[in-house]
Structure formats: C-alpha cells, structure tokens
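ARCHIVE CARD
Drawer: 12
Card no.: 0347
Subject: one protein chain, sequence and derived structure
Cross-reference: see card 0346
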Amino acid sequence: MKKYIWYLLMAVLAGGAYGYYQYNRPVASLESANADVVLEAPALLKAFETNETTANTQYLDKVIEVSGQISRIEEDGEKKSIYLSTGNEMSSVICEMESASSTEGLAAGSKVVVKGKCTGYLMDVVLVQSVVKK
C-alpha cells in the first residue's frame, strides 16, 4: 500500500513541476513566424466593421502581417504601441510591441510593416506580440 502512495506522490510532484514550467515558459517571438494573412490596415479594420463574426474566424488568434502609415507611437514604460492609420478617425489598428522590439527610427507619418497576433476588435483592431518587419 505504501508503494502505491509513493508512486502517486511522485506522479503528482512530476505533474506539478511540469505545470509550473509551462506556466512560467516565455512566450515565443513572432519574429521568425510566417504570417497567416497579409493585408493593409484599412482592409483589416473594414473586415471587422463589415462583419465581425466572419472577421473573427478569419483573423482571431492568427499571425497577421499588416502594413500601413503610423499615426502615433505610444511608450508607457516598457510597453510600446504603434497605431496604424485606417482612414477612420475613431478607429485604428493598435500593434502592442514585444518588450524586446525596438521602435527606433519610426515616426508618425512613416510607412511600416508589422507582424502580430490578432486578439480582436472593440473600437480598434488589436495585435499583440508585434514586431516590425524589416
């Protein structure tokens, strides 16, 4: 009986260690990931404005390479975000940058290509883990 309890305890400890490792594992960078979809910022926003349900199935949780003109760049401590102009003053495509990603050399009005994972649409389309494509 003690033998089975010992095996059960070892299995629980091994499972707990594996779970802890997976929970604390760093997120993989999208730098080398292939884009599932390539399009321009106004087209991405229009897809969500036209039919959000269809756009969710096409773009949600997928790696998207989006090109557009920078309307502004926000830096809040470690967090950096690039806002891409869409032709709609109320909405834009927000690219939340990876912490290691640099926005040096980028300014409002310049063209850029950004790759990120789409998390959806509220007033803006949001891409996370974004990296500037060189």
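Annotation on reverse: The beta strands are 37-40, 63-76, 79-84, 93-97, 111-121, 125-132. The mean pLDDT is 88.
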